[in-house]
Amino acid sequence: VRKWSLAIGAVGLLLMIAGCARGEARVVARPSATPRASELGYHRVLDIDFEKPPGSVGAVASSFEMYRSSSIAVDVLRIGEAQLTYSAGVGGGQALSFPSKATIGKGRIVLRVLTLTDPDPLSPGRADFAFGVDIRVDEQSSADDGDNVMQRGLFQDTAQYKIQLDDHRPSCRIAGNEGEVTVVGTDRVEPGRWYRLRCLREGAKVVLTVAKIDTNGVAASPSVWSDFRPTGSVAVMRTSTPISVGGKIATDGSVVAENTDQFNGSMDNLFFEVFGSKDDGTITPAPRGTPTPSRS
C-alpha cells in the first residue's frame, strides 16, 4: 500500500507540474490539511452567463426572466433613462454592459437578484462560500471614483459580502456576526481588458483572486491576496435584501441616487455558490469527488 501511495503521489505531482506548464490556474486556499466543506462539493445558487437571448449583441437588455428559478429572480432597477445592453463577452460569447461615464447624467441602473424562498439560498450562514464575475472596465470609471461590482447588504449591516473596484483596485469585503474582513488587491485592473474576480470565504480565511483573461476566454494564473480573521455567520437578516450588481440598492429597495458607485463597463459569468451544507441543513453536500468550479 505504501508503494502505491508513493506512486500515486508522484503521478499527482507530475500532473500538477504539467497543468502549470499549460498555464492552467487553480486556487487552493486551505489553511490546514483538515478536510473542509469545499472538499465535499458545492451548490451553485446563481450562475448567469448572459448568453440568453442568443445573438443579441448591441440590443437593450430589459428582461432577465430566462434566469429565473424556483428560488431566484433577476430584474433591473433604474433611475432616469439609464440602460443595460448586450456586448461581446468572454471568449466570444455575450456580456452585459453598464452605462459609460459619458452617459452617467442620464441616470443609474442596477441588476437585482432576489430571493424567492425561505430558507434564503443567498444567505450562506457559517458555510464556506464563493462569489464573483468576469469584468471589463471602461477607460474611465464612475463619477464618484468607485465601481460597485456585486454585493449583498450595506456597510452598516451585520452581514455583507461584496466585490468592488476603487481607483481600479479590486477588493472583497465579508462581514458576519463575529467580525469583518476586507482584502484589497494591490494591482489595478487595466481598462478594456477582461479579468476574472473571485472572492472565497473558507473558515476564517478570505481570499481574493484576480486573473487576466485572454481573447480566447482562458484565464491566466491569478494574483492572490488573503487575510485570516473570523467572520462568523454571514446570515442576511432580511430575505428582501437583494444582491445588487453594478451599483447600490438602499434598504428601502431603491437605487442609491448619490454615491451609487455605478459600474462602467461589461460583466460576464456572474456566480454565487455555497460549499458543503449550511448550518440550517438546507443545502445537501454534493457527493465526495464532485469537481469544484475552475473560476480561479
Q: Per DSSP, what share of the residues sits in E-state strands of 2 or more residues?
A: 35-45%
Helix content range: under 10%
The end-to-end span amounts to: 34 Å
Structural class: mainly beta
Residue-averaged pLDDT: 80
The helix count comes to: 1
Q: For this entry, what is the oligomeric state of its chains?
A: single chain
How many β strands by DSSP?
Answer: 15
Question: Nearest-angstrom radius of gyration?
Answer: 19 Å
What's the SSE pattern? HEEEEEEEEEEEEEEE
> Which blocks of ≥5 consecutive residues have pLDDT under 50?
1-40, 278-296
**Tell me about the biggest sheet?**
8 strands, antiparallel
C-alpha geometry:
globular
Structure description:
Helix content is 7%, strand content 36%. The protein has one helix and 15 strands; from the N terminus they run αβββββββββββββββ. Strands 1, 3, 4, 6, 11, 12, 13 and 15 form an eight-stranded antiparallel beta sheet that branches. It has a seven-stranded antiparallel beta sheet with strand order 2-5-14-7-8-9-10, with no helix packed on it. It is globular, with a radius of gyration of 19 Å.
